[in-house]
Design a protein that fits this description.
This protein has 299 residues and is an alpha+beta fold. Helices cover 34% and strands 21% of the residues. The protein is built from ten helices and ten strands. Strand 2 and strand 3 form a beta hairpin. Helix 1 crosses helix 2 and helix 4 crosses helix 7.
């Protein structure tokens, strides 16, 4: 244990207990499950899967969709340019008007008075056209993956700006370090680019759940200390980037797959929207935009 940790523990025992608890949860999650979502969230995922097997069923003939198989096997499914421009433009017409308006959007991160990311919380209430992103094809993929019903439990849209190197060295502005999300590991997220994205716009980076386990076995530490050479963590053979024209999308389990945001280049930015899904006892509500409910998990 580092000397600094011992000093801090003596000065603040309560905080030290919390740090030990968090680190133990992370250690067990990595050791047993091969990801950094944490032991508790992996256990929650296991319990949810058991309940899904007992209570949910799905026509196996519908599981032949290759995108379902890709999501099942890799932890992600690349959708490519999935949405017509008209669908995205109907969202952008309102999004662009409010993303930088303090009356509707919130500062996600800032440093020394400079804003580096903004988001529109409860964006589904402000832009109901988002409902058009849940096409029949998307619904079939999610149902196929869960072998049953699902609900939407969160929607978020945000804009990332360029972060100068000197700021990057000081502080992580918007999940630009490799990490797994800390949630029930059954949760799946749809990421949709709301703008044209190249390598220079700071795209989302994703690695498969198999590669994630491999990196953890190699000694991957955590988002603030990889404990591995960067050329191994960033091996381009294993990194998928969400680049492409607006409407390009990917389905991903961000609890099982290491992922990160890249930093947009100078004078560049990136706009993206995510819809998170979870298994449910009931079919997706027709008015799901008005009924997003964190409690609607399989019981």
């Amino acid at each position: 244990m580092k000397k600094g940790y011992v000093i801090k523990a003596i000065q603040n025992p309560k905080n030290a207990f919390y740090v030990v608890k968090v680190n133990l949860d992370l250690f067990l999650g990595k050791k047993i499950y091969g990801n950094t979502a944490g032991f508790r969230h992996n256990i929650l995922g296991e319990l949810t899967r058991l309940k899904m097997k007992k209570q949910l069923s799905y026509d196996n003939n519908k599981l032949k969709n290759p995108l379902v198989a890709e999501l099942d096997i890799n932890g992600y499914a690349k959708l490519g340019k999935f949405y017509d421009d008209s669908v995205i433009e109907s969202i952008l017409t309102k999004y662009n008007k409010i993303i930088e308006d303090d009356a509707f959007s919130t500062v996600r991160t800032e440093y020394k008075g400079k804003i580096y990311s903004r988001y529109i919380n409860m964006v589904y209430k402000k832009i109901p056209e988002i409902a058009n992103l849940l096409t029949n094809d998307i619904r079939l993929i999610i149902k196929g993956h869960y072998r049953g019903h699902f609900q939407v439990h969160h929607v978020l849209a945000w804009r990332n700006y360029h972060v100068p190197p000197e700021v990057v060295a000081e502080k992580e502005m918007f999940a630009s370090h490799w990490h797994c999300d800390g949630r029930d590991t059954t949760r799946v997220t749809l990421f949709v680019n709301l703008s044209d994205v190249t390598d220079n716009n700071g795209p989302l980076h994703v690695q498969s759940k198999q590669r994630t386990k491999e990196l953890v076995r190699k000694g991957f530490g955590g988002r603030h200390d990889y404990n591995l050479p960067n050329d191994i963590v960033e091996d381009p053979r294993h990194v998928v980037k969400l680049t492409g024209p607006k409407g390009t999308a990917i389905l991903c389990n961000p609890q099982l797959c290491l992922h990160r945001a890249d930093i947009p280049g100078h004078d560049q930015q990136r706009d993206i929207l995510e819809i998170r899904f979870k298994p449910s006892n009931e079919p997706l509500y027709n008015d799901w935009l008005n009924r997003i409910d964190e409690t609607n998990i399989v019981k």
